[in-house]
Predict the 3D structure of the following.
Amino acid sequence: WSKPPPEQRVLVEFGDYAIRLPPEGIEVPVDTYVEFVATTDDVTYGLGVFRKDNRMVFQMQVLPGRENRIVWKFDQPGVYDVRSTEYSGPQHSDMYIADAIRVTR
């Protein structure tokens, strides 16, 4: 894989059983390489992106004290949900954001 340079960068912060996305939201054009950079300072989480029918698009581990990165290209426009895919404790099931990412033409 040629590691294409990302055209957009999205910062995602995890901590205290919460997912914090950019305040302006996440909107990316279809067929654009996007780098997701996820961080946490407490425990291990998972950044999972899902289609509306609950099929997983991708996921990555989010390890404490590191910049965890993945470059992704969405090939279909739509609205995607974000949830933690790593069990991190009793509030894990609350770590869900509907309609978190908008992919546009």
